[in-house]
Automatic annotation (TrEMBL):
Residues 36-148 form the YbaK/aminoacyl-tRNA synthetase-associated domain. Keywords: Lyase, Protein biosynthesis. It holds the Pfam family tRNA_edit. This is Cys-tRNA(Pro)/Cys-tRNA(Cys) deacylase. InterPro entries: Prolyl-tRNA_editing_YbaK/EbsC, YbaK/aa-tRNA-synt-asso_dom_sf, YbaK/aa-tRNA-synth-assoc-dom. The gene is ybaK.
Length: 158
């Protein structure tokens, strides 16, 4: 994958974190980026996590939840000791993270946003999340994902 790195893969390499990259041919007609990744890679969907950017009390934050669930906005707000959360405008999410929608990684974001990882991630030896572009997933231990993003772990999936 020479020349096809992303800020997420650069961070993992720089930190010398054990990880595995998995690529697949992205189909722009697929309705769900996360479910597409699970299907293409033959992974149980509950191990694939999507990165969603929301606003908590007017400030951007990131929720990392299984692709089989939805982001519980009240749970996200509570985990970050906020009052109110709503989904961010896509353009704001892309500008803050440096990634395009469908390829937003919780790792290596342009602006370091608060991150909350759903507690369900902790039951797996490894989980999958976007490596920074559509069609590229990174497999990593939940503990490393939490450490590298300085995340809070909480129940934020509905």
């Amino acid at each position: 994958m020479a020349g096809r790195g992303t800020p997420a893969t650069a961070l993992l390499d720089k930190q010398r974190v054990a990880h595995t990259l998995h690529s697949y041919e992205h189909d722009p007609r697929h309705e769900s980026y996360g479910l597409e990744a699970a299907e293409a890679l033959g992974i149980v969907p509950g191990r694939v996590f999507k990165t969603l950017v929301a606003e908590v009390d007017g400030k951007l934050a990131v929720g990392v939840v299984p692709v089989t669930g939805q982001l519980d906005l009240k749970g996200l707000a509570a985990a970050l000791k906020g009052k109110k959360a709503k989904m961010a405008v896509v353009a704001d999410a892309e500008r803050a993270t440096g990634y395009v929608a469908g390829g937003i990684s919780p790792l290596g974001q342009k602006k370091r946003l608060p991150v909350v990882v759903d507690e369900s991630a902790m039951q797996f030896e490894t989980v999958f999340c976007s490596a920074g572009r559509r069609g590229l997933e990174v497999e990593i231990t939940p503990a490393e994902l939490v450490r590298l993003t300085n995340a809070v772990v909480a129940g934020i999936s509905a």
